Amino acid sequence: MKLNKYTKLVDLGKEYCLYNTYNSAAVTLPKHYFNTDLNIDKNLSADEIQILKDFEMLDDSEKRILETLKKEYNNESTGLVLSVELTRRCNLHCAYCYENGLRNDSVISDEIIEQIVDYVDAVSNKKELNLLKINYMGGEPLLAKNQMKKLHKLLEELCTKKNIEMKSVLNTNGVLLEKDFLNSFKNMEVSITLSNREDHDTVRTYEDGSGSYNIILQKIKECKDVFERDDINLDIRFNTHGGNYRYFESFLDMLIDMGVNIKQVEPMYTLEYEQNEFKNTLSRKDFLIWNSTIALDALLSRGFKIYFSLPTVLRPCKAYINDNCKIYADGNMGLCDASDYATRGPKLEDVLKDLNLFNEQYKEFKTWAPFNQDKCGNCANLILCGGNYFCRNGMCDYERYDIGLFIKKYLEYVMNGKSDMFVNM
Q1: CA nearest 298: which of 275, 267, 342?
Q2: Angstrom distance (rounded) from CA 350 to CA 357
Q3: Which band of pLDDT confidence, cut at 50, 70 and 90, is reported for residue 394?
Q4: ω into 139 cis (within 30 of 0)
Q5: How many CB atoms lie within 10 A of CB 185?
Q6: Strand ordering across the sheet containing 7-11
Q7: Could you tell me which residues come within 8 angstroms of residue 368 by beta carbon, excluding any fewer than 6 positions away?
């Protein structure tokens, strides 16, 4: 009896867990049920066979699953995601930043702010829109606080008028955090990059080489009351590399001792860029293993919940959905927050004259589907991966975790009655 390619076998010692990436169904079977080709070699009971059929784990369901994935795949959405670069200026000079060498003094103008509001209005007139998500970026976005407040207020007014839910993310280094400023917003995630002091003050420095660790901790503590609000959440990003991953557990202890409400801590792999001298001596493979074992245990044992989830619906990356875009401070448009200024597209003012102009210029991406590539369309990891997006270094360079190890850890917590620690699974 053969399993379909979307069902993963996870080694649990004396048993295998059969995990269906299509619907998250999980079943355990003894290892002696399987032959050397990892097909089921034992005669199963009628009830056992029916369970595998109901959970769509057998190979006769493979064709139907693929057809359903194709049918449900859609480059349209009732949500709109905008990444807004408020300024290209920054008050830090981080060793690994992808914008090193690309900075200038541009700050978003009132004219561009009004054009962004007009763009959201126009998109909402073109199609059903029930969610707007704004990612505030820089440079350092808090160097343009007044512009951010103005844009946010205008968008809130528009969304209220049109009954559109609005959420936002502030990606900041934290140096300029202010309690009163944050309290003027609603439904916001505040994402700050931080690591252990020695590492942080080596790679996240001011222009003169001095460290920023102390001031960021001070600012976070000053905003402690803000992060107690249900609708303002603090996320800490731990940019992981060979010089700091061994200090992750003591770093978490420091965060707990700080006494600030932190929604989640996310270890992320630190990438290298050709304009930087920074080199990550931790391989991606070793990061995936570490992040799926030691890092997960460190977080979960300290009460930090995991918000990452394995996808069960095949959706395009946000960049590949029509109308989603990045808007630079000077009004040029790009595909998403992973795109750089060199690949910018049309001016926002021109798109407002012809709303199809942006999607047409990026037609290669906005009409893209993984089924059009043989390697992707026929791949067993298609649901987990989503396809070969432009921002990836390699065809299958998509994981934040070793999938088998992540599933194993998740099942361990499920069997111990702690499935709530994996919030979105």
Answers
A1: 267
A2: 8
A3: low
A4: yes
A5: 20
A6: 7-11, 15-20, 26-30
A7: 75, 316, 320, 387
pLDDT at 374: 77
Distance of CA 182 to the CA centre of its chain: 22
The candidate with the shortest Cα–Cα distance to 174, out of 281, 92, 100, 270, is: 92
Identify the weakest region by mean pLDDT among 3-17, 151-165, 171-185, 380-394.
380-394
Question: Which tokens go with 312?
Answer: 């069960």
Are 17 and 408 a contacting pair, CB within 8 Å? yes
In angstroms, rounded to a whole number, what is the distance separating the alpha carbons of residues 413 and 420? 9
In angstroms, the CA 329 to CA 331 distance is: 6
Quote the CA–CA distance of 218 and 197 in Å, as a whole number. Answer: 13
Cα separation, 95 vs 202, in Å, equals 8
* Lowest-confidence region among 3-12, 177-186, 234-243, 310-319: 310-319
pLDDT of residue 378: 85
Facing residues of 29 across strands?
16
Question: 415: how many CB neighbours lie within 10 A of its CB?
Answer: 11
Question: pLDDT tens digit string along 201-216?
Answer: 999 999 999 999 999 9
Q: Record the pTM.
A: 0.91
Instruction: Give the sign of the dihedral formed by CA 303, CA 136, CA 168, CA 22.
Output: negative
Q: Is residue 171 within 8 Å of residue 192, measured between CB atoms? A: no
